[in-house]
Structure formats: structure tokens, C-alpha cells
Amino acid sequence: MSFWNRIIETISGAATRSALSRDVPYDPSRYCFVDVEVGLKDKTIHDIGALRWDSAVYHSANHRELMTFMKDVNFVCGHNIINHDAKYLFGEGVCRYLLVDTLFLSPLLFPERPYHHLLKDDKLLSEQMNNPVNDCEKARDLLMDEMAKWKELTPTKQSVFSTLLQDSIEFKGFLAFVGAKPDSKELLADLIRTEYAGRICAHSDIESAVRQQPCELAYALALIDTTDHSSITPPWVLHNFPNVENIVQRLRHTKCPEGCAYCNKSLDVHHNLKQFFGFDNFRTYDGEPLQENAARAAVERKSLLAIFPTGGGKSLAFQLPALMEGRSVHGLTVVISPLQSLMKDQVDNLVERGITDAVTINGMLDPISRSEAIQRVMSGDASLLYISPEMLRSKTIEKILLARHVVRIVIDEAHCFSSWGQDFRVDYLYIGKFIDQYQKVKKCREAIPVSCFTATAKQKVIQDICDYFKQTLNLDLHIFASKAVRTNLRYSVIHADTDDDKYMKLRSLIAESSCPTIVYVSRTKRTRTLADKLTRDGFKALPFNGRMDPEAKIANQEAFMNDRVRIMVATSAFGMGVDKKDVGLVIHYDISDSLENYVQEAGRAGRDPHLEARCFVLYSDADLDKHFILLNQTKLSISEIQQVWKAVKDMTRQRMRACCSALEIARKAGWDDSVSDIETRVRTALAALEQAGYLERGNNMPHVYATGITVKNVDEARKRITESLLFENEEIEKAVRIIKSLISQKYIAKAQDSEAESRIDYLADILGLSKSEVVSSVERMRQEGILADSKDISAFLNDAGESEYKSNRLLERFIKLERYILGHISADALRISYKQLNDDAQREGVETATEKDIRTLLYFLTVKGYTRKKEDGAYNIELTCQADETATLKRFEKRLEICHFTIGWLYRLTSHETDENSKGKGIQFSVVELLNDFKANGATLLDCMQNVQLEDIEEALLYLSKIGALKLEGGFLVLYNAMDIRRIKDNRLRYKQEDYRMLSEFYKQKIQQVHIVGEYANLMVRDYEAALQYVQDYFQMDYRRFISKYFQGERLREIERNVTPEKYKRIFGILSEKQMEIISDKESRCIVVAAGPGSGKTRVLVHKLASLLLLEDVKHEQLLMLTFSRAATIEFKQRLLDLIGNAAHFVEIKTFHSYCFDLLGKIGNLDDAKDVVARAAEMIRKGEVEPNRIAKTVLVIDEAQDMSREEYDLVHSLITSNEEMRVIAVGDDDQNIFEFRGADSQYMKRLLEEPGSRFIEMTENYRSSQHVIGFANEFVRGISGRMKKDPLIAMNHKEGFVSIYHHASHVIYQPLVDDLLTHRGNGSICVLTQTNEEAAIIVALLHKHGMNVRLIQSMDGFRFWNMVEVRMFLKQIDSETHTPAILDEVWERAKNKTFARYADSSSLCYLQRCISLFEQTNKAKYLTDFKEFVFESTVEDFCDLSGADVVVSTIHKSKGREFDDVYMLVSKQQHIQDEILRRYYVGATRAKERLFIHTDTSLFDRVPADEHHVSSQQFDLPDEIMVQLSHKDVNLGFFKPRKKEILSLRPGQTLRFDNIYLYDGGKNTPVAQLSQKMQGDLRLWAEKGYSVKSASVRFIVAWRPKDAPRDEKEHAVLLADLTLKRSNR
After folding, report:
1. Of 265, 384, 376, 254, which is closest to residue 319 (Cα–Cα)?
2. What's the rounded Cα separation, in Å, for the pair 369 and 347?
3. Window from 93-107, 963-977, 1071-1085, 1332-1346 with minimum mean pLDDT
């Protein structure tokens, strides 16, 4: 029930008035005061107090005895007796008594401040609870004072009031009691005019008010009679008699046409201008009286839209009418402004003029200042209230506005209403709805007028503002606009080529000037860096930006205003409303993002019209790109609104309403809550959804914390609080103030009534305390029994089918993890990443640990003061305990015990709920009841359980809520400023593009405005007069006509893009039409691209990523790219860095495994990758992954043809979890050569089944020559079930060459090498084989011919991170890194030590390349990132091919590479399958110029080529071959005792082979033993005449048996290269 509904029930009793009296003679000496106490719930009499004329007292609940007590009484008196007590005493029948009600008399006889001391609003002040006799005494004292006041009135006023009120039941009894004699109503109007001459309009229509609203007229006259303009009519009077405000308005603020003395003076704007501001005249603009006309229209109560130039005095145009109405009708003007600094400026400026009528309530105020501001508005001290649009959602603001006579709503920065404005704000669109609701509640007879102000507005913006108020409030706005142009400003644009050049020019401009200067920059960070730099150079400057602490902003602003500092470096947040007249220089270090903002900001110079001021822009085209980047970061995309809508749907799935904070919605939507403006973004998204009709948002409102008061008076409360052990000395007085405030309100409404007067936030505001202080005090008073506690908490247990057992199991899971975390926070601090912490926990036995659970726990532990937590943007944390280990663990054990008890206790309550209607509504219970039951039944022998307090119970409940064991609502769990949200539309509906139209239009305009201001800058350099005309046209022409005049043809398309034309051409100008088709597709939900070899797949993906970030409203945190190899992620990151710069660092490009390890909270490791993808997909399906880890709006998949069932399941889970996710999958089914590990291009095809999918073929080949493409097209026809229908198109115009050698011999190494040596050119060469063994033989042959060869092959048996060089580097980093980030000096020191130790190692190059690539692709070096980078990489990822004469590779490892000449060895006829054909197709399409195939199969017999050679010659194996040993080729057990010897060796070092052992050079120390398998292989080679000629160390790696105990150390293993030579035969 709302505040006003309770007033109606308590006061308005119109239905019973006619039955309460009859005309009989009464003796005023026989009176009795009565007060009835009625139960809130049962509405029956609980107690009665009566006080008779003879001082007899009655105190009982017996109604019949009361009637006997009053048998000789004629007048029954009381406070609010007519509409409350009489209803219960006399019912609906005829009452024989005449009733005297002190309630209605008090505002009539005591209308002026200070009001009667016994009253607060409509209630008697009392410090005792439930004592009706005491209330009778108070009512008697009040009536005596009212009678005395009546006698002080002049006979004329007595006559006026008695005549007006004679027929009203509320006053009839009193008039009879005092013997008042009414006069004739016919003469009353003239009598009033005479009595109030000079204070009301002489020509006002008093006659109609006398006839129709006599009571309202009486109250209006009482208010007019006051001498203090801050006196106001009580809110309850305005509610019951709403026309009081209207009558006061007619009498005091409606100017008569005839022009009486009152109107000519009090309503004259010139007279009041002089009186309030001391000015003789209004400001004019080239003779235009714009300021005066706007002020006059407001005085005439017109609604208006005024377009004032910056510095044009718009503030006075609404302040003057507001002050006038404050004096005339005691009214309140509400000013809605978007900037807190602007509010403060205007209030301070008025104070400097001695005007204290203005108040602001905003987030910059401390609790005491806020309390004072609220009191000033409530008490009538304020005529002007400044608030932000969001404050209209506050119940406190609603309450104080309903209590006042709001005479006008002023909206500053009114362009925020229009999506065509430069600063559209969705929350402005709530203003009309609020005004409409306010007018209905207040029963306003006339619409409240509005005044809209803006400094700059295009014609379309003006039309939008007018349409908005016509549609929402049926108001017609009168438009006041100036055509004048500021003539004292001189504009200049100076081109700056570099940052250094720009700064030097800035310094020169400042040095030439001695006047106050504002330097505008676009980024908050630059305000400080530039101010510091100027100060160091001798030009003292201060920064100002919207993200500074309020105190710092105020201090810096005041220093500038008071001339303590000459230069202010600021963002656009500075200057709105800053009225400093002597600013002579404004420099835009970064150009503004729109002409509107530029004109406004430049206009802060030369406020004094006699001052010649200069406005400079230091311009570079790159400045526009900064604005585009900033716009992309700050804009609210449709996908983000869709995510919020999905979150709302999830939160209202069971019930249509939800009470939650912005932060909770953000988390549910999957947003990262480290974003600084996240709450604003959520509220904006909700406003957009509300505007589109998807939901309805109520007021921001915490709940009431108690349901009754058990003490009788303040003295008893003070005594119990003082004696309580729960209150510290400094808390006692606060608690007494709180209970006194509660008692004075007579009662506390039910806890479920969220609009109760005694709300916690309202108490905090009124008393000047913080909410936490009030909450803490109320909880303690509840525990002491001073405040009653009922079932004020609702618990929603797990869904149907869940059990107490499952809740306990969930609890145990979290408890186990929490024990681990608390046990690992050292005395100093724990510095670690979430992923590393989770990985460590799982490795140390907490198998159920997840990163999501860790975040949940750390959030709770931090909020409840167990730990302090610091976190950076890369999810690295620093944890410290706030208490010693013993105290922390004791508190932990106490909570654990309470949690177990609570789960059982709540489930037992659930079992008693049998009513079907109660299902889904939660179990209501009392926290105090839970505490008492625990003390009685749950206590254990643990020491920590001996002193359980209410806070302990509440902490346990909060813990259970946070871990998901139950959901709690109401009471103490208000952690954030909760919003009341009601879903209107069906859960199945999606937020659509048409709903986003208004915001979309706004952002489109924002992009165009950046281009427009850039065009202005370039034009200003070329032609000053043309630039001025350009600006004039912009503001005066129709927007579309302006665009068509200055932007035609291609320029029209350019200004719709979120990049400058130069940057667009640089990034996208090199792409083909087909590639641009993919880039330009912004609508398709799923794009599947079948990209043939050499078609620019990587380029398209990189440029698509750039397009998503720059042109498609996708923020980096919403974008995810998945690849199949670490090498691919490195390449994409490098190419994206080259394309768009540092922004690429923030894009998430990961391998499937790496991303899944992230979701599991583990550090990626290929050894553990077996089922990681399947586990991650399962976790997503079960909702076990934090939303912000998977809430992506775009998923990009590289090599989509390589997806296996697990990877497809992951992708499908992500799509299912994100309703509006777009998918871009690029691959080539013809290049699926990894079927052996589960890859299947059918999963790529399945993506085409998604709604809104689109299939695109890319068949333009930019790599290969004409003949190579011809060969490939013919060969690929043999593959069945292909996705692409079109053949490859050779875009390379070289003819090229294809040669196929058909050999009868099955050993064809030598002819291939001979062919290579014969045809060797200057380009790159690659030999492709099917197996590692073939590759090694080719390498040996090429080495024999003195060629520099690089080998790319898979390294069986070991990972890159096992290499001894890598291990040393990791060890160096680990030993010196104690924070998540690796310090630069630690990094360099580790490099130097490792490189020095292994300077002579032939495998050091792999580590060096690894480090180089990591440095290139990671802006900051984090330990977990580097470990993941290393653990996920393979040796071949870091194979440097530069400088090689020939590259030898298996076909599988060559994928993604290209070479001028390719030699492919295809031997050993196999059963022809599609997989085999695709493998050779991949090999052939690596060739750019020439392709040579040597084969002993018939596979290529029918494929066209430039040459087909047939050779019947038989070839033997080469005389010399190389065998590369792997783990299976050596006896691993042999190495266990020889770690030291092995580690002393270096890769590349020569070994000696003897029998089955390898020896360290000339020493006789064996360092390796061949395995039985390898010994057998050598015997086979020996049979062919081969023996080991030489050996060398290839790699030294770490190894530990898989079944080894956890504490067994790793061993060093030596892997060698053996050169076998055939003996002469």
C-alpha cells in the first residue's frame, strides 16, 4: 500500500460524513477527548483512552463502558477522530455527538513555520507507544492552542473562515465549539478581496471558489496569509484537498488582463529581475529579448523550448520564474540535469547572490548534506530542486515531490530526448511518464508546465522534443530561439602532424596568453598527464574529468573559478553551467566529437560580450579515429540490450517480477563487472527495454527491516539500548535517534510494504546517516527485542525435485574449496590468477573446484571482511586475510555449523507447507526465530558456538544464498540499490532491430557528427568564411538538406562508417569483391564460408575481426575467435595488431583447448587435453560456467572443417547459451585431413542448419599459378560430398608448371632430390612427404648436397615445454615472480641467463622464437598467460624457416603454408579414400609457381599436367640416412640415475655410438641406451647394409613416468640423431 493510499484510508472519510451529525443544541463545556488504538491486521479496537471535561480518565478496550463514560458528553474531540476513531466507535449510523477534529484545524490556524510543536505532518508527536490516554492529553493541548489562535484572528478572518467552512463536517464541530457565526456567502468574495488586497490578484475569480471549493479556498487563504514563503501546506491536506494548489495559483500567479497592482508588481519579470538578481535589464542577443521572452512565458505558465547559445543566460530564464513562484505560491520548480557538476555550479552561483532557495540532491553529496537537502525541500525552504533523470526512480525523491506543490519541470540539455541529438539518453524518455504519473497521483487540474533548454539544437532535434511532450503529456511547447551569432569569438584550426608537434603548438598558444584558459581533451587519462606536463613546463594547470573523485573535481573547479590556477585541462564534463566570464582562450587539444559540443565548449570563452576571445583546434585526422574508438567502447549495442533482456527473462522465469541490482543483472547477462560504468549501461538497457514495452521498471527501493516497536517510549528504548552489549558507546546515540524517529511515526508498516515511511533508505536520508549504519542499528534493536521481528525473509529453496541432501552436498563442495583457499593465504599475501588457483586446487585434491566457484567464494569472503582482494583486468588477484589464521578459521567453522543447521531447519519448514498456492512463493521465516532455534537445538561443544549472534545467522544465510543453496529476498540482504522490474512481454520474444531503431539512429548520427566536425576542421584551414557558413547551415538547415549539400556520392557512404575514409581504405581497400561480401554482412546470424586454398581465408578473418570491432558495434569482450593451433592464434594476433594496433591485444583469440581450459579454470596443457572440450561443453549446458565467460555476441571459427564432435558440441552450447550470438565459420571441407583425430566437415555443414544462416564460397585463389590451379580443380573432382560447387579461379596470372613423375621403383627419394637440384630456382622450396621417416631420409640426402634444410615434423613423445632450455627459462621466471604479472627486469634477467647457459645449444632457437612471438602478441606479460602459451605450443610452432634453402615437411604439418616450388613424394599405393585425396590436394595447393609430384602409384595417371614422365629405373635407398630417436627409441629407465650427466650436454653436441649405447664424445660415460624396439630397427637396417656412422644430441627433455608417485622428480632424457651409412658392396 502506498503512502498516499494510507493517507486516504486514514483521513478521507467522505462516505461517512453525512451520517456523523445532526442539528441539536450542544453545551461546549461538556466535552470528551477520545483516542482509539486499532490493530493493523484485524482492524478491531485493541485499546481506548478518553479524557472528560471533569478530568475523569477512561482506559479500557470495552466499547460499552466507554459509552456509559460519555453519557453526558456533547462534544467528542480528538485528532483525526472524524475519519478514524469515529468509524470504529459509532459505525455508519447517526452519531449523537458533535465531533471536534484537531487534525483539519491545525494547518488552517498554524500555517506558518514553525508549525505547531505538537504536530509532525498529520500526526501528533509522542514519545510513548500505545498509550491512548497520553494521546488524548496531547489532542487536548492542541485544541486549546487552536482555540486560542482562533480568538487571535481578526473578526473579518473569523467571518471568512466560518462562512467558508460552515457546511464542512471537518470544521462544523469546532465552529460550534467556539461559537462562530457565519455570514452570507454572497458578500464573501468582496470581503476576501478587501482583506487580502495587495496579496492576491484583484480580478481573480473568488466567487466560483466560494461556491465550489470553500475548504480549499480557506486553506489557500491561510497559506497566503503567511509571511514566510517557505511555509507550505501539509502534504496530507494537498492530497485530500488537491485544489488548494490550483486556487493559490489562480489567486497569486495568474496575471489578470486588466493589470491590478498585485500583478503589475509581483508578476512583473523586470521588477523581480531587479529584486532577485539586481539586474536592470535582461540580456539580449543582437537586440533579441530571448531571455526575457522565455522568462515571461514561464511566468505565464506556458510550456516552452528555448535554444540558448552557450553563455546565453539560460539559467536565469528558468531560475527567475522559479523564484517568483516560490514566493507567490510557495511552489517548487524541479530542474532535471544530466551533470552533477552543473547542478552544483548553479546552486553555488545563486548562493553567491544571496539566494538560498536552490537545492541539489545527487551522488556527490555526503549523507549529512543529502539529509539536509531533503529536509530543506520537505520543509519548503527550497524553490528549486536540481536532480538527475535517474533520481526520478528514487522513492525518496517521489515522496518529497508529492509533498510539495511542483509548479514547473525544467529539463536542461533537452537534446538528450532526441536520437538525432548529440547526447541522446534513454533515461530522459522516462521523464514524461513520471510527470504523467505524478499529475494523476496529485489529481492536478492543470498540466504541470515544462521548460526545455538546450544550447544547440538542429531542426530535427527541436521537432523530436516537441513531439515527445505532445505525445506523452499533450503539451504544446512554445519555441524561443535566437538567430544571433557570437561575434566576440575568433575561431582557428591548426594542423598538427605528431603528438610532439601538437604539444609544442599548445605550449606556444598558452605562452602567448595570460587569460584563463580551458584545454579540452577527449580522454580522461589525458587530462592528468597533460596538466602534469604543462605544470612541469612552468604553466600551472589542473585536470578535470567525470571520473575524478567528487572532492577533487570540486576543489579543481573552485581553484579555476577563483583564479588560483589559470589553466584547466578537461574533458567535456567541465564547463556545462560554468559561468566564468573572463575565459579568453579555449584550445581543443582533441577536436570535439560533434559540432554541437564544439560550439558549446568553444562558447565557454568570451562569456563577457566585451571580451575578444580565441578558440583554437589542434587538429589531426587521427583525432577522429580516437572518437570512433571511444564511441564504439561506450555505445550500447543491440546485442548488449539483448543480453540484458535474456538476463531479465532468466530472472523472471518463475515470477514476472524481480527485485535485483544493476550489478546482478550485469552478471546474469555475462558482462564483466569490472567495467566502470556497468550500472549506467544496465540502467540504459533497461530503459530501452521499457521504452519498447518489454518490461516495466519501478522505483529503486530497499525494504523495511522490522514490523513493530515493542518499547512504550523513547526513555525505555534509550535505557535498553544503553544497557545492551550489542551497542558500542558511539552507536548508542545513533540508535536512539533512529528509534525516536520510528516512534514519532506512530507505527511501522509491514515489512513487505516496500513503500513504508520508515524505509531504511528514507531513515538514512532524513537522519544524515549511512544506510549501513541504519541497517546495523536496526538489526541490533531487532535482536534486543526493541523492534519486533516477524516473518520478514523469504527463502526460495532449490527447484522441485531437489533435496536437502543435494543442498548439503553443494555446501560441502564449497566448504572444501574454501578450506583450501583460506589455508593457502599466507601471512603476507597470495598473489595468483583465478585460473592458477583453480588449477592448483584441483591438483591438490579439490577435484570439484571451478573458477566460477572460486569467484563466488572470494566475493563473499571479501564482502564479509574475511579477506581483502585486489584484481586487475586480466583476472589476476592479490588476497590477504583481515584477521589472524586462528580467528578466521574459528569464524569459518561457526558459519559451517550454522549453515548445516539452517538447511535442515528450512527444509523442515518446507515440509509443513502443504498449500498448493504456497508453491513458488518461498518459505517465509524470521531470522530471530532461526537464531533462537539454533541456540536451543543446534549448539555444539565447539567453543565458537558459545556466542552466536544475529550477524552470524545472517552471514550464514548470505553464504547459502551466494553459493546457490537457496535464494533469499527481503530484509537484511539488500546489498545493492535494488530495482523493481516487471516483465511484460512473453519469455520467448526477442529484442529486435526495430526496437533498437531509436538508439540505432542516435549512434548513426554520432558517427556522422564526428565526420562533420572533421570536415569543419579541414574547411576552416582552407576557407574561414566557408567554415562559418558550414556551421550556420548545420544548425539552421534541415539535417538531410545539409548532408546532401556538403556530402555527396562516395562521401555520403563514408560518413556512415565508424572510421575515417583514410583508415577505411587502408584496412579494407585491398580486399576483393567476394571478400568484402563477407566483411559487409552484418545481419546473418551464421555465416559459413567454404574458402578454397589460397583464397585469402586468413586475410578475410583478420579483416572481419577488424570490421566487427570498428564497424559493427562489437566490443572486444563480446568477441571470441577459436582456432585449432597455437600457431594460428599467434598469426591472427600478429596480423590483427598490424591492422588495427593495440586494440588487438584485447581480442580473445584462443585455441579450442585453451578456451576450454579457461572455462575449467585450468592452465592449458596439451598432455591433459584429452576430454577438456567435452567437459567444457557439458559445464556450459549445465549452467556451471560464469555467464561473463561465455556471453559472447560473435563467435569466429577458423578451420571449421576440422571440428570434431566435441568441438561442435562446444560451439552449439555457446550458441544455445547466447540467444543472439552471430557465428562466422570459415574452413574448407576439401582440406579436412585430420579425420584420424575425429575431424569431420559435416559439423561445418550443420552450422548451416542454424536459423538465419548463409553459405558463401570463396574460390578466388591468389596463391597459385594457372596450371597449378588447373591441376587442383581436376584432382579435387574425385572427392565426394563436397560443399563447394564452383572451381577455383586463379587470380595469379602466371602460367606456372606442373610435372608428374611416374616411377616403377618404390624407392624414389633420389630422383626427387635430383629433380629438385635440376629445377632449383631462386624462390622458396618445400619437399612434402607422408611420414616423418620419409622426411628424415630426404633431409639427409639434401644435407649430402650441402643444402641448408629446415625440417617440420611432429615430435612424438614430448612437448615443447619439456625442452631443457624452456624448463630453465620457466624456472627463472617462477623463482622471481611473486605476482601475476612478470616484471620486465625479471623477464630480461631470465632471458639473459637462459641464453647464456645454452648459447651453444642447437635447439635454443625454438625458445628464442617462442619468447619473441609472445612479446609481440602480449601487451602485458602475465605468468599464467606465458605458461599457457608454452604448454599449448609444439616444437614445430617455433620452427624458423628463414634462410633455409629447402623446407622438408610432412603434408599434415604444411597446412597453412605456401612455397614457390613444391615437390611432393607420394609412394606406397593405398586404398583410395576421400581422406587420402584431400591430403594430396592440400599438398598440391601449397605450390605458388611450380608443382612436382613423384609417385609410384597410379593416382595421378589421368590428371592433366604440363609434363608426365614415366621412369622404369629402379632406385636404391640413399647411402646415408638419418634416424631421429624419440622416447620409444631409448630405454627411459636408463636415464633415471644420470640426470646430472645428461644436463651437462647440449643439443648439437657430438656423441659416440657403440653397440647399444651412446657416449659423451670422447668419454667412456654412457648417456643413453637404445630401446629393444630401436635395437631391432637397427638390425633391420644392418641387413640392408647400414650401420651407425655418427650421432649427435638433438633434444634434451624432461620426463617422468605417467604412473610415477606425485613426489617423484622429473628425469632428463637425451634424444639423438643417428646417421646411418651403407657399406660399399
Report:
1. 384
2. 13
3. 963-977
For 235, 367, 940, 1228, the CA distances from 399, given in Å and listed in that order, are 10, 18, 49, 65
The type of residue at 282 is F
Q: Where are the strands (E) in 63-169, listed by range?
A: 75-78, 98-101, 119-120, 123-124
Q: Say which DSSP state 674 is in.
A: T
**120: phi then psi, degrees, rounded to nearest 5:** -135, 110
- In this structure, the number of other CB atoms found within 10 A of the CB of residue 563 comes to 10
Distances (CA, A) of 1244 to 73, 217, 681, 1226: 95, 80, 36, 9
- DSSP strand pairing (1289-1290 vs 1260-1261): parallel
DSSP string, 1562-1592: TS--EEEEB-HHHHHHHHHHHHTTEEEEEEE
SS3 call for 1433: coil
The CA distance from 1486 to 1326, in Å, is 9
Model confidence pLDDT, tens digit, residues 1450-1474 = 999 898 899 999 999 998 766 778 8
Q: Which residues contact 1176 (CB under 8 A, 6 or more apart)?
A: 1155, 1156, 1159, 1160, 1185, 1210
Exposed/middle/buried for residue 1201 (C-beta within 10 Å: 0-12, 13-18, 19+): buried
Q: Please give the order of strands across the beta sheet that includes 657-660.
A: 657-660, 979-983, 695-700
CA nearest to 828, candidates 886, 881, 876, 869: 881
Contact 1081, 1112 (CB under 8 A): no
CA 628 to chain centre: 20
Backbone angles phi, psi at 478, to 5 degrees: -85, 130
Task: Report the distance separating Cα 1393 and Cα 681, nearest Å.
Answer: 49
Q: What is the pLDDT of residue 816?
A: 92
Give the span between the Cα atoms of 1239 and 1204, in whole angstroms. 4
Which residue carries 530542474 as its cell?
Answer: 335
Closest to 404 (Cα-Cα) out of 386, 384, 390: 384
What does the alpha-carbon distance between residue 1338 and residue 1358 come to, in Å, rounded to a whole number?
23
Handedness of CA 358, 359, 365, 366 (dihedral sign): positive
How far, CA to CA in Å, does 727 sit from each of 58, 722, 763, 955, 1207?
39, 7, 19, 19, 59
Q: What is the pLDDT of residue 15?
A: 34
Cell 451520517, located at residue:
19
E-state strands within 1312-1384? 1325-1329, 1349-1352
d(CA 1069, CA 1140): 14
DSSP single-letter state for residue 656: S
Contact (CB, 8 A) for 854 and 814: no
Do the Cβ atoms of 754 and 970 come closer than 8 Å?
no
Element (H, E) at 810: helix 804-823
Cell, residue 186: 454572497
As a whole number of angstroms, the distance between CA 836 and CA 1164 comes to: 10
Listed residue (863, 827, 816, 1034) closest to 958, CA to CA? 863
Which DSSP symbol is given to 1381? B
Q: Which of 525-529, 731-735, 763-767, 1198-1202 has the lowest mean pLDDT?
A: 763-767
pTM (2 d.p.): 0.72
Q: How many Å apart are CA 875 and CA 873, to the nearest integer?
A: 6
Beta bridge partners of 387: 336
Q: Any idea what DSSP says for residue 99? A: E
Strands (DSSP E) found in 652-798: 657-660, 695-700, 708-709, 787-788, 793-797
pLDDT digits (tens, 9 = 90+) for 42-60: 788 889 999 999 999 999 9
> Buried (b) or exposed (e) across 717-731, using 16+ Cβ within 10 A?
bbebbeebebbeeeb
CB proximity list for 354: less than 8 A, separation 6 or greater: none
pLDDT digits (tens, 9 = 90+) for 1234-1281: 888 889 999 999 999 998 899 999 999 999 999 999 999 999 999 999
**Rounded Cα distance, 998 and 1169, in Å:** 47
Straight-line distance from the first to the last Cα atom of the chain, in angstroms, rounded to the nearest whole number: 109
